Amino acid sequence: MPTRKSTKARHAAATAEAPDASLFFNRDDSWIRFNQRVLEEAQDTTNPLLERVKFLAITASNLDEFVEIRVAAFLQRIEDGYDEAKPTDEGGLRPQERLDQLTERLHAFVEDQYRCWNDQIIPALEQQNIRLLRWTQLSAEARAHAQRIFDTEVDPLLTPVTIDPSHPFPRVLNKALCIALLLKSKRKAAGSSVLGVVTVPRALPRLIPLPSPAGRYEFISLHELIEAQAEHMFRGYAILSQSAFRVTRNSNLYLQEEESRSLLESVREELHNRRKGDVVRLEIESSAAPEVIERLRENFELAPAQVFLTQGPVNLSRLMHLYSEIPLPALKFPPFTPREYRISKGSASIFDELRQRDILLHHPFDSYKLVEEFVEAGAGDPAVISMKQTLYRTSKDSPIFRALTHAGQSKEVTVVVELMARFDEDSNIRWARELEDAGVGVFHGIFGYKTHCKLSLLVRRDADGMMRRYAHLGTGNYNPVTARFYTDISLLTARPEITEMVHRVFHYLTAETEADTYAPLLVAPLTLWDGIVTLIERETANARAGRPAGIVAKMNGLLDRRVVEALYAASQAGVEIDLIVRGMCSLRPGVKGLSDRIRVRSIVGRFLEHSRIFHFVHGGQPVTLCGSADWMPRNLVERCEVVFPVEDPVLAARLRDEVLAAYLADNVKARLLQPDGSYIKATPGAHAPFDAQQSLMRLAEGHTIAIPARSASHAE
């Protein structure tokens, strides 16, 4: 069996040469197209209005992460002196050339965001009596209310600064709201203008509700309120100009393996450094005085292209506040109650049930409650001797976290906490400390490899005296909050062939001991990459031999070159391939002689499509797998991942004939990837409109749903 080091070396060798741009889409261009599809949902008038606001806020949050990670990485390479083309860049362009192209596209995307906000969302909000007001538009009552808010809750937290030799530019935190002011001293007739800066604490809400007549919802933005009080904060100065701005900093963690420090301490120190990372983007209102923009640009040492002028709020992600603050159900998606799993009458507990059958859950259509109950049962059942759990992201006050903490006082409990779950590092450090204090054995996986697999393993001495293992394997994080709006798969099982291998995976994570085999599991960075390619190549061989062959795969991203090349070869051999890829996809479908039989669709809807499901026809003996890994290099060779089989034929058929079939039949939310890299909206044509997520919700509610044949995925 290959080791993690040999797998990584082989992957590096396989991607050493620059790819042919005619065969692969660039990942960053593909990501921008994905965020454009999210923006299309904000533009779609068939979506409820506040949901459109939410989609727009999501595009801004997505863009923030892209800038502070991907754009920052380009800048880091350039600043470190790397001028050669990186093999994975489209066309073999140098980093600066790629960055120039990327920045141009990002500016165009930001313009699209604000056109959506100003031309579509704002007028629609006003029609619903929802308004964001300027200070000059406030009634006397609203102004008095806002003034009280400022005096009691805002002003005590502000520190206005004028920039001069004795007052250096304040440290501006990553993505913090700030106000820049151009000031002129009233006491000095001569002399140049000075720059003033107010940094706004994150604890303050960015939108402040105002008293308004019944049926109306009015707000003033925080920066508008602060700007209205600027004269009181900068007494003795005339205010020539003022504008809101924020900066985005490099948020990559740069860790070095050092025996003298624990991983936890390394991450903690790097988090502190990240707050001070180099600035990679300045966002500032387009109404800002050119002198203010130039002074800020020079202070942060930015190129002109790194300055983004906004035609509205500098942080559109904060518009999510409107969604939570406005109690108008008619402007949101109708509420949905997920289906609860009912344990059979003959079973006294979840453990009795799992000895009889596997359980498959498709969240959020199936409630996440059973997963919580599984872990809670392990914590509360005296017959459960030990518990093992991975945690990548979870939520505050998570029942799973509480159960593990409780169990640590009386059982052998092992938790593998991923400290480098991006942007959740702070909370994961706190959880790790709390678990340790409760007596839980806390580990942090293998240095340099994120622990991204979703595993829970209980060892129980059953009533017959036998010691048995029970496991949960999933595609999503142990987070009951996101489980309500992420689509994911959960498998609960007591099958010895699976639970034994889950046990081996935990040994690998805690002791870095590599087993001879993990079959039937595929485990990254050891067996997953080769295993996926082998499954694709087996379909290729079956097609060439005239046996049944076909692939349907659903994932978040498809970027691995070796996997893409294997799919191309399968298509050329006659394998019909349907790919459901929500985000980035480097594969170019529908190219004659290369990928004629490959179709790629993306679905962005009410729920975030997060499940990974892989179905192989396998000569008429189908194989269906689920797991935590996308077909991307970071998942296949740079993380600890697990892909698991669904061996119960009834459950596998449900995934094939209900879940995958629904997504392949979608002609409402689906976007179809074209050979030139563009996406076109699927249209019903002669078929009835079919929305996969809506249909799966109705199915969960007990309605009978006829899922059309997958002809829609071929015909459009």
Summarize the structure.
The chain is of the alpha/beta class and 716 residues long.
Question: What would you note in describing this structure?
Answer:
The chain is of the alpha/beta class and 716 residues long. It folds into three domains: 153-316, 2-Layer Sandwich (polyphosphate kinase like); 350-511, Endonuclease, Chain A (2-Layer Sandwich), CATH 3.30.870; 522-715, Endonuclease, Chain A. Helix content is 37%, strand content 21%. It is built from 21 helices and 27 strands. Strands 14, 18, 19, 20, 21, 23, 24, 25, 26 and 27 form a ten-stranded mixed sheet that branches. Strands 10, 11, 12, 13, 15, 16, 17 and 22 form an eight-stranded mixed sheet that branches. Strands 2-4-3-7-8-9 form a six-stranded mixed sheet, sandwiched between helices. A hairpin with an 8-residue loop joins strand 3 (178-185) and strand 4 (194-199). It is globular, with a radius of gyration of 27 Å. The relative contact order is 0.09. The model is unreliable at 254-261, 270-275 and 711-716 (pLDDT under 50).
CATH architecture of the largest domain: 2-Layer Sandwich
Q: Considering the protein shown, what is the CATH homologous superfamily of the largest domain?
A: Endonuclease Chain A
- Give Rg in angstroms: 27 Å
Termini gap: 43 Å
| The CATH class of the largest domain | Alpha Beta
CATH fold assignment of the largest domain = Endonuclease, Chain A
Q: From the helix content, strand content and strand pairing, which structural class follows? A: alpha/beta
Number of domains: 3
The level of helicity is 25-40%
Q: Could you report the average pLDDT, rounded to the nearest whole number?
A: 91
Shape: globular
| Biggest pleated sheet | 10 strands, mixed
- Indicate the low-confidence ranges by residue numbers: 254-261, 270-275, 711-716
Q: Please count the beta strands (DSSP E, at least 2 residues each).
A: 27
Tally of alpha and pi helices = 21
Strand percent estimate: 15-25%
